[in-house]
Amino acid sequence: MDYWLTVLRLAVRAMLAYKVRSLLTMLGIIIGIGAVIIMISVGRGANAAIQAQINDLGSNMLMIFSGSSKAGGVRGGFGTRPTLRVKDAEAIGRECPAVKVVTYLISRNVQIVSPKTNWGTQVYGTTPEYMEVRGDWPLREGQFFTAQHLKAGASVVVLGSSVADNIFDPGQAAVGQMIRIQNVPFRVIGVMETKGRTPDGRDQDDVVYVPYTTVQSRLMGTRLPGVVYYIGVSAQSKELVAEAKREVEELLRQRHRILPNADDDFTVRTLDEFAAMADKATGTMTLLLTAVAAVSLAVGGIGIMNIMLVSVTERTREIGIRMAVGARERDVLIQFLVESTTMSFIGGLFGTVMGISAAKAISAVANWPTIISVDSILLATLFSAAVGIFFGFYPARKASRLDPIEALRYE
Fold it and tell me: Do residues 251 and 117 both lie within one domain?
């Protein structure tokens, strides 16, 4: 123990003898470790935010999209080919025992006009069951439309909070106000609670909800009657999600008369699939950013190796004296390895503090979600020490193999 304490004390003394040079040498390690912690924290924070938003939709939710179109070799995305209909949704509710609730919707971009101003947004024509399938999303004021509104094709609308805040004065009650959508008058019966933005920046509150029958008859006319772009399904329980998916796929293939070996003209997704895709995407992003940050560590390691080589040259006579009084090659090797590792480790500690502080600052200033985990801190710190050992080995080996006589003669 005394041996290692002596070696460590000599390493610290050598660093303090050249304070500025030691600090500049550690700078690459500090920046590299800090960058690694920041990237991991931001990546994990983004993943957690995405997973939380997916969970908000409900753990037993399935999403059914229309098929994709193909024209001249160009393939469109889901929903570009209208293959789903209201009758499909109604059949799912009747004939799939594992399904609890079904909803459907169509959407289009519209311009809303209020007595104060106008606002461009997206209207969703849907059913009252949408709120149950969509998950926990309360109303700020008023109510959602009912089955009676849907049956009668009533001209009522529920606003997202962003829409309400932009077309009405602050503090003004939205419920009971009249607005126009494509010159069709609508009465506001509710305003949704603020949901916030998605990680990709999309405003979830910039939307309005209208009964499907009203959108179909008064906003879309005779265009694609009975067609829906999306069907939402809530399974009886989370355990029955897979069974509900199987039942829905079999029923739709039967209704659409799809041959056994033919591709589906629809797509069924579960939240677990979306969560897995999101986790894979954010994991890849985090890995890429961490790899970029690791370049700084490599640069810092090369800086340590260069400085240690300079140190070996400057301390050649000192090395010769140590060997002359009985120091072995192993002792000299350990001495220089401890110096490089100590320098890298201290740089790692400073970098850790810098990374944690920067991650918290980013979270506070830019409102980005960040998660600082103990394992990322330990990983970064241990990696910094490993950099010191790896890049310090060659200078230490060179110092240990100096010829004592030649070293004593060195000026």
Answer: yes
